[in-house]
Amino acid sequence: MHEIIIHEVSNSDNSKTTYLNSSLKFPMSKEDIERALSGADIDNPCNVFEYTFRMDGLNSTITGPQKVDNLNSLATLLSGMSEYERVKLEGAAVLRNCRTIQDCTKLLYNLDSFELTPDVGDHESYGQYFAKINLTNSLKDIPAEIMEHFDYRKLGKMMLDESENVFIKGHRIRDTGRELREPDLERDPLACCLKIRLCSDENPDGVWIKFPLRDENETSTDSPVHTDEMRVALTSLKADSLDRCRAVECISEYPGIERCFEAHAGELLANLIWKAQNFGCAEGELSQYAKEKGYKKFAAVLEYEKCSNLDFAVDITQNLNCYDFAPDIETYGESYLIEKGVDCTIASCFRLEPIGEFLSIMNDAATNSNGVISRNDNEFTYDYYQPKQEVPVIKDTIRLFCPLEIKTDADSALGEEYSEYEQESDYAVIPNHVAGSYEDEILAAIEKNMSAPDELERGLAIYINSDSSLASKVYSIKPSVEGWNSELWGVVNIETTEDLTPQEMAELKDECLGQLSDGFGESLEQREIDTCDGEIYVSFWNPHGDYFLVPEQEFKEMHPEPQQNHEPIMGGM
Predict the structure, then answer these.
(1) Which residues, in sequence order, are CB contacts of 365 under 8 Å at separation 6+?
(2) Are residues 422 and 514 both part of a single domain?
(3) Of 185, 186, 446, 483, which is most buried by a Cβ count within 10 Å?
(4) 250 pairs with which residues across the strands?
(5) Does residue 252 share a domain with residue 153?
(6) How far is the CA of 539 from the CAs of 132, 447, 530, in angstroms?
């Protein structure tokens, strides 16, 4: 994606000026720049008189003639920025009166001297933010009817120091006033272990987010989805949630991670963000290792393990001691000799290549593009990834049925339609013979509510206590809904690998009941489900005396199908 469009250039002595019709879009390779300038009969180095930044805030700050190579270098830096960093830079450029490429480059190396507060984009929202942080106690006894007359905009204008703060794209940027460090041009100021480009229908070009996601103000939960960096990205994507976004590209400084990203492409975006955040947090330890040994061992292990899962990649960063590595076959042989106590000088007297080849066969080592790698006897600890195990043979399927309680807001159009039926406080109960028309939407909500990676295959069975005999006999527990006798019912589908004793069957019912009432069920009933008629809420449990959770046969005996009347119809003469 281009960062700067070049419109007009001239020779270094300004003797000839050419309008390029936007044919130069930086960043570009030096070869492409030379070809474009040659076609315009302009020699490089040359001056640029007219140019446009994709980052609007820089168009009003950096002005005047610039060198082509300087603009291209700046565009290369800008192209690596996350949306969070871009908003910060625009604010910093205004606050520090940025006027030159050198000024902008210096700011890029000092973005930590500026603070970003997401979703505080004007004086009124700043007044609300200020009151929440500083006035909660002093205003806590003021009635809500009186607080309706509080002028937050006036408070914001009074309390905001305009010389230290600026609003950019719906967010506040604050200058901490720290002295800016001189750029260390040997270091990439925007380097990160992993970044992902998100886009939406409203913003098809998308924005980059970098991992680990940052949360400067430390006001959000531990979920990466609610960090400051993600909130800035969602604002630019014009999306109120990740449900309206999609991941389209991944870049990592660690080889092989792009392959992992492609393997996760079909997952819910929120799950991908969690996995990427875990990898970003684990990167610190890998970085420390990389400073000493280089990145090649990690890359070699990724290739050796054919890693295509971010969780597995995270665990690999913590278990590099489980692999023996050498950059080439000779070093592989030399490492063995040194490990056996042979002095380095004496080791050099051995013919190392045949020794390395012999050892690689003995250790079942693999030679790939990064070096020679083999597994050693150290125990590999899995903290994030669960290796796929052989699926056991399913011996029986048990189906437990229960009534559903389906509600909607009493004051909604749907609630008013069913106001004649039972009502509970603020909710109207939708009769189950009507709820069948929402079966697809309810099934989709159940699937979404059980989207954790380890739930996808085994459902709620993963929560069975490992000390229980059910843990080895019950393979999966998956709630669903199903129509019977023109009504919609809750169903729990259970797969077992062995026969259950009567005591285990009773324990299984208790396990399912606990999940329907407190675990899975409580989570689902708090999730609004959108239908063509409005929002509904579904409960697999209720406190009424007629609630039951029984096997399929018993359920169908309780609710038999209506008998068909086959008596002949008598006609008259």
Answers:
(1) 324, 332, 359, 372, 373, 374
(2) yes
(3) 446
(4) 196
(5) no
(6) 36, 15, 15
Output b/e per residue, 249-288; b: 16+ Cβ within 10 A: ebebebbbbebbbeebeebbbbbbbbbbbbbbbbbeebee
* Total domains present in the chain: 3
- Give the integer Cα–Cα distance in Å for 174 and 505: 62
Is residue 471 a part of any domain in this protein? yes
3-state secondary structure (DSSP) of residue 422:
coil
What's the rounded Cα separation, in Å, for the pair 299 and 317? 10
DSSP reduced 3-state for 378: coil
404 and 524 within one domain = yes
Structure-token pair, residue 115: 């603070």
d(CA 86, CA 53): 12
The span from the CA of 425 to the CA of 216, in Å, is: 41
Nearest to 213 by CA among 273, 271, 264: 273
Residue linked to tokens 């991992």: 211
- 158 and 218 inside one domain: no
12/430 Cα distance (integer angstroms): 77
pLDDT per residue as tens digits for the range 153-165 = 999 999 999 999 9
Based on the domain organization, do 233 and 115 belong to the same domain?
no
Residue 560, Cα to own-chain centre: how many angstroms?
A: 48
Closest CA to 87 of 218, 234, 195, 243: 234
Residue at 530 is within a domain = yes
Assess if residue 34 is contained within a domain: yes
Q: Which contacts of 560-567 are long-range, i.e. CB under 8 A and separated by 24 or more positions?
A: 561/485, 562/485
Judge if 99 and 201 occupy the same domain.
Answer: no
- List the beta bridge partners of residue 478: 493
| Domain co-membership, 48 together with 142 | yes
Tokens of 514: 């606990």
| Of 92, 89, 54, residue with least CA distance to 75 | 54
∠ CA 285-287-289, nearest 5°, is: 75
Token pair of 462 as six digits: 């993963």
Percent of the chain with pLDDT strictly greater than 70 = 92
Q: Where in 310-460 does DSSP place strands (E)?
A: 323-326, 366-368, 371-375, 396-403, 405-409, 423-424, 427-430
Q: Tokens in use for 489?
A: 């019912």
Gap between the Cα atoms of 547 and 402, Å rounded: 7
Does residue 198 lie within any of the structural domains?
yes
Share of the chain above pLDDT 90, in %: 52
- In the predicted model, what is the mean pLDDT of residues 492-513? 95
Alpha carbon 229 to chain centroid distance? 12
Cβ proximity of 89 and 107 under 8 Å: yes
Torsion of CA 98, 102, 105, 110, to 10 degrees: -70
The pLDDT tens digits of the residues spanning 432-482 come to 888 888 999 999 999 888 877 668 888 999 999 988 999 999 999 999 999
DSSP conformation class of 459: B
Q: Which residues pair with 247 in a beta bridge?
A: 198
Domain range spanning residue 412? 396-558
How far apart (Å, rounded) are the C-alpha atoms in residues 99 and 93? Answer: 8
Residues 296, 212, single domain; the answer is: yes
Can you count the helices (H) and strands (E) in the chain?
A: 25, 22
